[in-house]
Amino acid sequence: MARSDEAAAFFHAVYSAVQEIPHGKVTSYGHIAKLVGTPQRPRQVGVCLKHLPSDTAARFNHANVPWQRVINAKGVISPRSQPSGTLNQAAALEAEGVVVTAGALGELSVDLGEFGWFPRLLPSEEAAGLVPQDSDDDEDEDDE
DNA sequence: TCTCTGACTATAA
DNA sequence: CTTATAGCCAGAG
Length: 144
Known about the structure:
Blueprint (H helix, E strand, L loop, with lengths): L1 H18 L7 E2 H7 L6 H9 L19 E2 L11 H13 L3 E4 L5 E4 L11 H5 L17
Parallel strand pairs: 1-2
Antiparallel strand pairs: 3-4
Helix pairs in contact: 2-3
This protein binds a DNA duplex through helix 2, helix 3, strand 2 and helix 4.
Protein name: 6-O-methylguanine DNA methyltransferase
GO biological process, one term: methylation
GO molecular function: methyltransferase activity
């Protein structure tokens, strides 16, 4: 039963990490996987979100976990079995102020704008110098 | 118990 | 740029 216990811990960690994503921003499955200490299991992160209960009475549910803010590393909403779910996620993101562009192939690309990513991009992206990296020490935050 | 699938990603060609 | 491949491992049948 230790296995199930570990699995529960993993689910818990994933949901907690997703809750850390600020409003109006997104991150990738891989990033969540790294946050929970298992950078090689981005797929399982997807499994966790798929199993995210809709019951609002549950500790983690569709209402308190911003599952919609999790997309794939390509900056696109991962297409899953049910296209309706993808569209649903796109709608949810739009509602949060995130701009989603529909590609010719029906792929829903998230417009990161300057930088809509939560903490930062993957190491590869960092090395590429694509990180905005707030210049200066001027710290300012505005939230509605 | 085995097999197949999948809300992923990095790397190679 | 696109396509193929190899890891990863939790569910569902």
